[in-house]
Amino acid sequence: MAPFEPAALPELLPVFYRRLFPHGPYGRWLSYGGVKNYFQLREFSFTLRDDVYLRFQSFSSPQELERELQKINPYKIDIGAVYSHRPNQHNTVHLGAFQPQEKELVFDIDMTDYDDVRSCCSSADICSKCWTLMTIAVRIIDRALVEDLGVRHRLWVYSGRRGVHCWVCDDAVRKWSPALRAAAVEYLSLVKGGADTVKKVNLSHPVHPFIRHSVNVVEKYFEEYALRGQDILGSPEKWDKVLALIPEEHREALQAEFPRRKDSVQRWELLRARLERTRGRPAAQGPCYADWEVMLQFCFPRLDINVSKGLNHLLKSPFSVHPKTGRVSVPLDLQRLDQFDPFAVPTITSLCQELDTANSDGEQEDGGATEPKRRTRDYKKTSLAPYVRVFEQFVEGMESARRGERIRRSDLQGDF
User: Going by C-beta distance under 8 Å and a sequence separation of 6 or more, which residues neighbour residue 172?
Assistant: First the structure.
């Protein structure tokens, strides 16, 4: 893949917004079936060259947004709430009257929040080893959203650098209050405490089904990710951090036994066997789930409650180009989640080169094509195509559900 040079963005972005950005399905997504004024009341923000930031942008139609994107070629697009008045007229509205009304429930999961439990990378850096944490996060949160909270329409998106975003788009959920959103995040949160907190997961009996489901997900990845990839019991310094999370009565015996075991896998087997023997014993404080607590502290999703609960919080748009990596914020195909490789995501540089290659011998043939049709064919000629298809399937799923609901209501009215 061609290396990305941030200095090339000014010349690449016009090509991206004119020929590659999926304006059609994007406009259909945010219009939600033509709900009156919904698109017009939506806030967008743009980050331009030299960190010029424009908030409270709004547009009368997806076509007007498309023209603006092609005119100003933003380095970053953020999407905000649907407001009581058009955001671009907020200065003309009586003080206090301009209020956010609706927004998708969003989640922002960032790898930097796991720095205390990953040894391969830190800060904004990621690698194939620690990316497993994002896979686990999507698996745990998505299952809970569908099976526990009853939502249907979720769009998972790679951020373009070091994390993932989720957009929950159900009609009812978009109307949720900040209190309801905070309650949902609280339900989905287990890791509590800041940098000074040693033990951040504390389970009590009986263990909630959500936690049991989460442990089952972590189990599938724990040996490969934590024991082999991060080698969390690989040295006395590392295993002391793990032993600090289990009851004191077990620490001394395990510290004596660990040096006799070959590696982290064998040491973990020893630790689990010891704790499982005590799980069934009656105790004043109930059974011990310390091995589960360790697994969850090292692997459970870490959510930013402020991103999710606030209606006025903006989140980076799908199909934005990350200005540091050049990677496009692409939707995730949950059917192929384990195969997703953030380093294989197309960059704006590679996409423009693919366009050049595809068009070098086909330019004359397209001479009579209209601009929208030509653009559709343009992104289909590149490695962006499968990601756009995932996005189209998501939008089509929402549209199909909307049609089904209209038919259901029509049938109900006909019964009276």
Answer: none
- Rounded Cα–Cα distance for residues 152 and 136 (Å): 20
Task: Indicate the pLDDT class of residue 281, thresholds 50, 70 and 90.
Answer: low
Q: To 10 degrees, the CA torsion angle through 177, 182, 184, 188?
A: 170
Of the candidates 207, 229, 225, 227, the residue with the CA atom closest to the CA atom of residue 136: 225
Kindly list the catalytic residues: 43, 108, 110
pLDDT value at 278 more than 80: no
Query: What is the DSSP secondary-structure string of 83-147?
Result: ESS-GGGGGGSPTTT--EEE--EEEEEEGGGGTTT-SS--TT---HHHHHHHHHHHHHHHHHHHH
Confidence (pLDDT) at 149 = 98
User: Which bin fits 193, alpha (ψ -120 to 50), beta or left (φ > 0)?
Assistant: left
Q: In DSSP terms, which residues pair with 166 in a beta bridge?
A: 107, 156
Per-residue pLDDT band for 151 (boundaries 50, 70, 90) equals very high
Find residue 168's DSSP bridge partners.
Answer: 105, 154
What is the distance of C-alpha 392 from the center of its chain? Answer: 18
What pairs with residue 78 in β-bridges?
45, 316
pLDDT for 361 beyond 90: no
Would you state the pLDDT for residue 56? 98
Q: 367 pLDDT exceeds 80?
A: no
The Cα-based distances of 252 to 105, 240, 246, 281 in angstroms read 46, 11, 11, 20
pTM score over 0.90: yes
Closest CA to 147 of 206, 86, 88, 209: 209
Residues in Cβ contact with 70 at an 8 Å cutoff, skipping those fewer than 6 apart? 14, 17, 18
C-alpha distances in Å from residue 55, one per residue of 28, 43, 44, 319, 398: 22, 8, 7, 19, 28
